[in-house]
Amino acid sequence: MSNVIEKVKIQGERWFPSTTSFADNMEELWGDWYCDSEIGKLRDVIMRRPGKEIEFVTQENYADFRWKGPMDVNKARQQHDALADIYRAHGVNVHYVEEQRADRPNALFMRDQVFMTPEGAIVCRNGISARRGEERKTAEALAKLGVPIIKTINGNGWFDGACGMWIDRETVILGTGARANKEGAAQVESELRNIGVTNIINFEIPYGHAHLDGLMNIADRKTVALFPWQVSYNVVKEFLDRDFKIIEATNLEEIKWGSCMNFVALEPGKVVAPAGNIEMKAKLEDAGVEVIETEIDELLKGWGALHCMTAFLKRDPIGKL
């Protein structure tokens, strides 16, 4: 009876909250995932190896998916595998979205589904209806890996992951246009500010372009390549104020048809890039950037290249540039 009385005397909640931050607990509870740049040493990526869905594209319907034409299925898979092998050869863990809708051939362009942050993934909502639904399979794959999903774009917002680009831990470019509206970008901005991003650079993507990585990309700690006639002054000034070297891409054939700026940094000053862009390769090398080329002519029929196909899950921290 006395024990019962003593228990009754105990008043109030005896479970107290932990005051540690999400970031402090992340590695223990979720795993070692992180991204605050386009150039930090690449450790983990998630991709979608072209599956049955690319066989869905025919001569009759390819324009519905914004493709140049149907792909040679075997060649496309070989080129995708070759890219994954380059990543592995440089110590990158390659993860895959193993399942996807059979009517979503653009699913191989994984960058549009995931915008990675230091505290987890923002799962995107594509701007075009022909891609809606890809994100569900992406979310399933991320959950299976243990990557925290800190936001899923919802409501009236839409946002492709390639409409966002990290400069450093405090600075992110957010583009709006055909693939990201103001509502979607605002949702991304809210999450970024919640985890310590203080400088958001707004970039209105010009008509005729889908994403930032068709107009610009960062190759080294202080080196950025960009299309000078289509990148707004306020964006370029942010790089100039940080003493970046500006590589101007001016070969229209390479920009539009060769996706010359759609490269992926393996680490600061070393990139894997689409083969055949002679001028851009020379300009990058003149700036001290090592360029590894890979053939993707078949994959380019889907109007996407290396950066489009690769969603970063972990890069070494880059800090403030």
TrEMBL record:
Cross-referenced Pfam families: DDAH_eukar
Q: Per its record, how is this protein called by name? A: Dimethylarginine dimethylaminohydrolase family protein
Organism whose genome encodes this protein: Sporosarcina siberiensis
Q: Which domain of life is it from?
A: Bacteria
